[in-house]
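Dear Dr. H.,

I hope your travels went smoothly. While you were away I took the liberty of generating a structure for the chain from your last submission, since the lab meeting agenda had it listed for discussion. I wanted you to have the full record in hand beforehand rather than looking at slides cold. The sequence, exactly as received, is reproduced here:
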Amino acid sequence: MKFNYKPNGGGPAKKNPPRQWEVWLADVSFDAGAGRRCPVLVGKRSGMSFAVYEIVPSSVRGGQDVVITDIMRAGMDKPSAIKAKSPISIEIGAFVQRLGDLDQSDIAKCISAMR
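The corresponding predicted structure, in token form, is as follows:
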């Protein structure tokens, strides 16, 4: 996925903190390997840390993943899916750029998958 990243001083996440159900570009590590910049879905906030879910191309999704139906609204340029069963916690400084948010039908699917 291609992203148009525009750095701006203190970073957009500090001025406008991420909200639940928004899609952000963030520096994260979802596995034991090195961190990488990828899109994430913002889950619940706990203090200054946020639970986030990895967004992957829908071609590599698993059985529990939620396919994003409105990819344009979410800021994606390819069909994508949310890995709804494997959140990690990241600090506000890891967020790079807001990409979009989920529509109501995708939120409802995520809530069901996260139970």
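Two observations you may find useful: The chain has a mean pLDDT of 85. Strands lie at 22-28, 36-46, 49-57, 66-67, 80-82, 88-91, 95-101.

With kind regards,
E. W.
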